[in-house]
Design goal:
Number of strands of chain A: 11
CATH class of chain A: Mainly Beta
Structural class of chain B: alpha+beta
Helix content of chain A: under 10%
Mean pLDDT of chain A: 82
CATH topology of the largest domain in chain B: Heat Shock Protein 90
Number of domains of chain A: 1
Largest sheet of chain A: 6 strands, mixed
Low-confidence stretches of chain B: 130-153, 264-329, 536-546
Number of helices of chain A: 3
Low-confidence stretches of chain A: 1-6
Distance between the termini of chain B: 60 Å
Shape of chain A: globular
Radius of gyration of chain B: 34 Å
Helix content of chain B: 40-55%
Number of strands of chain B: 22
Largest interface: A-B, 24 and 28 residues
Strand content of chain B: 15-25%
CATH architecture of chain A: Beta Barrel
CATH topology of chain A: OB fold (Dihydrolipoamide Acetyltransferase, E2P)
Largest sheet of chain B: 6 strands, mixed
CATH superfamily of chain A: CheA-289, Domain 4
Number of helices of chain B: 27
Structural class of chain A: mainly beta
Order of helices and strands of chain A: HEEEEEHEEEEEEH
Distance between the termini of chain A: 21 Å
Number of domains of chain B: 5
Oligomer: heterodimer
Chain lengths: ~150, ~725
């Protein structure tokens, strides 16, 4: 289901940044991450989908910011001291920021400890995942960024 | 040899030459006898040939070679310029254009040999030479001339000034050898200037170079064809010098002979004679030495004494014909810069302006700003503003490069449509941002075609209506404040609003009832609807249904606007209004709720303070009356979904914006002030929001959105 997944040779490792959304832990492949910043002021953009929270100024560049929570159908983000924006660089969508509740750590997972998740048309949230990783700190749901960022039609 | 690194330059220069050829051939059509034009064409064709040859594009080279031949004949007066010849030449240009496009796309010229065109060129040639042989009987005349052209570099033609003259005579007195050399560089040679430099160096080991033709500066700048000539003074033997020069690689041949002082002066006057003699040596330009002894013998007759005096009049009589090709238009000293580098520069300037704005707001915030700080900030402000202006100017190019192809296009249209028309252009020197100039070509072309096809009537109809048979299309460009206006105007039929209305109803764009209620202007605006074409017959000139709506959207994508005025029977005027620059604008900052927005100053008409009691309702819409105009109100807080923080009883702050002839009043909570802002794109990720045209970073680091007044109206 996921191309990246298939390309990973067994025995090699992939690094993920572990973030928290609510009580759950999610992993974002480190190769997509450009930067992690504290919550700046987000300028709201009117007349767009509600998961698009607006735009921020990142060193002179205007970058759109989205909420994974709203995209995944969770409750609205609550800004706390530990809230962060992860700046992703994606091939198709360009640079985009996602809001997370907390950035915990970087984990290195051996590829044979990553399990794919089956596509489930009933469970919408599962469609945002590329797999589940087993680390010492528990299970990490690995985000399929392209699906997360994909514009809802 | 790898030439790929020169490809960009080659393409650019080829474009320039083609454009030049287009213009020149057009003016030749008007004035077939103009020698300057013919020479210019010859030169351009010649450079094209050389460039194509260097890059290894054989087909292109062959075609230009034959074009050059034709012009060589025309130049000699053996062929008269005729209408069909012009047609063939234009077809050649199209073919060259095609090669150029192919090269741009795939760095390969393609496989079209254009045999038919070459044959037609040769036909023109043979027609011409038949005529000339009948009239003059001097069959070798054209060849002689061609050879003379090849020998333009021959040292025979070098003129000396007095001091050089005296150096030479001194050298002769001292028994040194004075030699004339002609060096021919191989056609495949790429760095001609470098080769020439090596030749210079080799020669300078034994000799002193007195003068060169072209000048050493021109040789250094590679402003020469394949030949260059030198006059040197040397103690060494001529052969020694020649061997030294020949030892440089990529030099095809070096020829030379010893000179007497009076040769040089005499050679000038004997030039025509020399050229004729050269005819014998026609195909081998490298042997230009031969004529020199001939010139020498004939020059022997005048006494040694008047040599000095012969020098002074010499330059005057001979040059006329010879000088013409040398008489190049003044070349601006320019540098080709990758547009990306300019973009980077522009971005940096933008950053600087943002930093300056931050400084201004920081100093205002701290509250204890001293006089000195303020002065420095003001100074910084003026510097950044002029820096921005100069960088912007660097990016500005005259629209000339784009509009220059139009006369040619109109000429072709004229033939295709069988109508008589003339294009008058003005303001080609008007400058616009490079990106805009690149993209404005297509919409303009569309409008011109539209005018030619739909606007102008046929000659018969025009005559009947008492108009001059030849229709006129005008293309005027001028700067108007922070905008550039381009007008396309014709004196044709104008827009038949009834036909447009009927068509719109027929197509289901509007209902008959709507049609009745519409003003003329609204009906004309229907033309910009997608898939609307009023031409009764679909021609390949216009009317494929992808017309004016595309024009409109293209111009709007450049932040411009287009409008039409038309009078039935008298013609129509299409007005395109474009911003001077796309990157940095003056804007009015406003506050709505607790959000800040920018409105481009260019679209703002006035700012009004309106008491709530002055707001009336027309068709359930809020309007205000302003100096006899009824202006619809747009409450931005409703459109932008922000709760207004203003008391409804308070006076409304209304920013009146203009789009074409339409006005609208934007209701905002508060005005913040005017500011220079740097436009940043929101990116394609947020493209759904039509009313926001971009964003900008404010002095305090926050992002403010830019409202697109055009889409609000």
């Amino acid at each position: 289901m996921n191309e990246v997944e298939e390309l990973r040779p067994v025995g090699e490792t992939t690094q993920f940044i572990v973030i928290k959304l609510g009580d759950e832990q999610y992993g974002i492949d480190i190769k997509y991450i450009d930067n992690i910043v504290r919550m700046p002021h987000i300028t709201r953009v009117p007349k767009v989908d509600d998961y698009l929270k607006g735009v921020i100024n990142l060193r002179g560049e205007v970058i759109p910011v989205m909420s994974i929570r709203i995209k995944m159908g969770l409750e609205e983000d609550v800004e706390t001291k530990s809230s962060r924006i992860i700046i992703l660089k994606l091939e198709q969508q360009g640079t985009i920021g996602v809001i997370v509740d907390e950035v915990k750590e970087v984990v290195t997972l051996e590829n044979d400890r990553i399990e794919k998740v089956a596509y489930d048309s009933k469970d919408e949230n599962a469609n945002f995942l590329s797999g589940v990783g087993k680390s010492d700190g528990g299970l990490i749901s690995l985000l399929d960024l392209n699906a997360v960022v994909l514009e809802s039609v | 040899m790898d030439v790929s690194q020169y490809l960009e330059i080659f393409l650019d220069e080829t474009n320039e030459h083609l454009q030049n050829l287009n213009t020149q051939i057009l003016s030749l059509e008007q004035d077939p006898e103009n020698m300057d034009t013919i020479n210019e064409i010859f030169r351009a064709a010649h450079s094209l040939k050389g460039m194509a040859g260097t890059m290894g594009y054989k087909r292109m080279q062959t075609l230009t070679h034959d074009m050059e031949n034709v012009f060589s004949e025309v130049r000699n007066g053996n062929i008269k310029v005729k209408a069909d010849m012009i047609d063939v030449l234009f077809q050649c240009l199209d073919a060259l254009e095609e090669y150029n496009t192919n090269i741009r796309e795939s760095s390969d010229e393609g496989t079209n040999d254009n045999g038919a065109l070459i044959k037609r060129l040769n036909d023109i040639m043979s027609d011409g030479s038949e005529g000339s042989s009948a009239s003059a009987g001097q069959t070798q005349a054209p060849q002689a001339q061609a050879a003379a052209e090849a020998a333009v570099g021959g040292f025979v033609g070098i003129k000396l000034n007095e001091s050089q003259q005296s150096v030479l005579s001194e050298a002769i007195k001292q028994g040194k050898g004075v030699y004339g050399l002609t060096v021919k560089v191989q056609e495949s040679c790429i760095l001609k200037a470098a080769r020439a430099f090596l030749v210079f160096k080799a020669i300078e080991e034994t000799s002193e170079i007195i003068v060169s033709d072209p000048s050493s500066q021109d040789i250094e700048d590679e402003k020469f064809d394949l030949h260059f000539s030198l006059i040197i003074v040397s103690e060494a033997d001529l052969n020694e010098v020649l061997t030294a020069a020949r030892s440089v690689s990529e030099i095809e041949d070096v020829s030379g002979s010893a000179l007497n002082l009076d040769d040089v002066g005499a050679a000038e006057t004997e030039e025509s004679h020399a050229a004729e003699t050269e005819g014998a040596a026609a195909e081998a330009p490298a042997q230009t030495v031969q004529p020199v002894p001939a010139a020498q013998t004939s020059a022997e007759t005048p006494a040694e004494a008047p040599a000095e005096s012969a020098q002074t009049p010499a330059p005057t009589p001979a040059p006329a014909a010879k000088k013409a090709p040398v008489n190049k238009p003044v070349v601006n000293r320019t540098v080709r810069v990758d547009i990306e580098k300019l973009d980077t520069l522009m971005n940096l300037v933008s950053e600087l302006i943002i930093a300056k704005n931050s400084l201004v707001s920081a100093s205002a915030m701290s509250g204890n700003s001293s006089q000195a700080v303020n002065e420095q900030i003001e100074y910084l402000e003026s510097v950044t503003t002029s820096l921005h202006e100069s960088v912007m100017k660097v990016r500005m190019v005259p629209i000339e490069s784009t509009v220059n192809k139009f006369p040619r296009m109109v000429r072709d249209l004229q033939k295709k449509l069988g109508k008589k028309m003339e294009l008058y252009m003005s303001g080609e020197e008007t400058e616009l941002d490079r990106t805009v100039v690149d993209q404005i070509g297509d919409p303009l072309m569309h409008l011109l075609r539209n005018s030619a096809d739909h606007g102008l009537e046929s000659a018969a109809v025009r005559k009947e209506r008492g108009k001059p048979e030849v229709g006129s299309i005008f293309l005027d460009a001028y700067q108007d404040g922070n905008n550039v206006v381009i007008e396309v105007r014709d004196d044709g039929n104008g827009i038949d609003t009834k036909a447009v209305k009927n068509k719109a109803i027929e197509r289901g764009v509007i209902t008959p009832e709507q049609g009745d209620a519409m003003s003329e202007k609204e009906i004309i605006d229907l033309l910009f609807n997608a898939g609307f074409s009023t031409a009764k017959v679909v021609s390949d000139v216009s009317g494929r249904g992808v017309g004016l709506d595309v024009v409109k959207s293209m111009i709007e994508s450049l932040s411009g606007e287009v409008e039409v005025k038309s009078k039935l029977g008298e013609g129509s005027t299409w007005t395109i209004r474009l911003p001077l620059t796309l990157a940095i604008i003056q804007a009015l900052m406003v506050e709505i709720g607790n959000e800040k927005y920018a409105i481009a100053l260019g679209s703002i008409q006035t700012i009004e303070d309106i008491p709530p009691s002055d707001v009336n309702l027309v068709q359930a819409k809020e309007v205000i009356q302003l100096r006899d105009l009824v202006i619809p109100l747009i409450r931005l807080n409703e459109i932008l979904d922000i709760p207004s923080k203003k008391d409804p009883e308070e006076n409304l702050v209304v920013v009146v914006v203009k789009k074409g002839d339409k006005l609208a009043g934007l209701v905002v909570d508060e005005l913040i002030g005017q500011q220079e802002i740097v436009i940043k794109s929101l990116g394609k990720y947020i493209s759904k929001c039509k009313i926001i045209s971009g964003a900008t970073v404010l002095g305090d680091g926050e992002v403010a959105l830019i409202l697109d007044a055009n889409s609000l109206i």
